[in-house]
Amino acid sequence: MSASVKQKALVILGFHKIGEPSAGGWDTWFYIPELQFQNQLMHLQASGWEVVDLSTVLLGLERPDSLPQRSVLITFDDGYQSTLQVAAPVLGKFGYPAVVFVPTDFIGRSNDFDLNHEPREPICTFNELLELEQRGISVQSHGSSHRRFSDLDLQEQETELIGSRVMLESRLHTPVRLFSFPYGDSGHNQDLASLMKRAGYQAACLYGGGPNAIPVSDPFRLTRLAMGPDTDLSHEFRHAARGM
User: Fold this and answer.
1) How many angstroms separate the CA atoms of 189 and 195, rounded?
2) Which of 120, 125, 232, 239 has the smallest number of Cβ neighbours within 10 A?
3) With contact defined as beta carbons under 8 Å apart, do 104 and 167 qualify?
4) pLDDT score for 116
């Protein structure tokens, strides 16, 4: 099949922590050393896939013809200070935009939602989130309390969605239209699209790996590739290209 008739694809990369653990912490799969992160972006640069920003993705979900043939969106969950201190300068070297998803109850605090599972790490303050915006990293919602949607009733889900969006928009003065489900758990709502649209969102991210075929069948269940230090992007992109 020729490249001109191949299925368009969007790959969303999901990072967490870039750099070393904070003092007193320990290493886990969610930490990617700075050099390894830079190497991953180098593989991405050489792959022929085009890194796009949030506005391009949101437009492309509505108008698929506007997206490049092979698109990549870089995302970070939780809003750790390492996103600003370590990841942002590396992204800047490549000229790559990105998205960071932040749970609003923990802004300026730490990741207590991961207590006993991951080391404690500081999460960006509002001023630091504004700096991320200035660096081309769009701040979007990861809910308020970082709870699994399967553990929430419909009213609690709606409160998480609307409350976090309103908080971010009022403090950062930027539109919030993309959501990342904590733990990749979207709950059991059979009418998820209606809930998300009522709450003011255009799309939402899960996990689950593979590329999203364009046009997407459900913009509120976009899959992401979970990124760790051993993720081989050259392999993943070859696999994605064959799969599309």
Assistant:
1) 9
2) 232
3) yes
4) 87
DSSP state of 138: E
pLDDT at 197: 97
pLDDT at 239: 66
| Structural tokens at position 53 | 């920003």
Instruction: Say how many domains are in the chain.
Output: 1
| pTM (2 d.p.) | 0.95
Sort residue 141 into left (φ over 0), alpha (ψ -120 to 50) or beta. Answer: beta
Mean pLDDT by 10 residues, the chain (244 residues): 66 97 94 96 92 98 96 98 98 98 98 94 98 98 97 96 98 97 93 96 91 95 95 77 60
Q: How far apart are CA 145 and CA 165, in angstroms?
A: 13
Query: Residue 189: what pLDDT?
Result: 85
- Which residue's entry shows tokens 């971010």? 168
Q: Give the Cα-Cα-Cα angle 201, 15, 150 (nearest 5 degrees).
A: 50
Say which CATH number the domain at 118 has: 3.20.20.370
The Cβ of residue 197 has, within 10 Å, a number of other Cβ atoms equal to: 13
CA distance 167 to 109: 16
- Residue 109 token pair: 């605090």
* CA separation for the pair 24, 3 (Å, rounded): 50
Q: Which phi and psi angles does 130 have, rounded to 5°?
A: -60, -35
Residue 215 CB: number of other CB atoms within 10 A?
15
3-state helix, strand, coil in the chain (%, to 5): 40, 20, 40
Contact 184, 75 (CB under 8 A): no
Q: Is 244 helix (H, G, I), strand (E, B) or coil?
A: coil
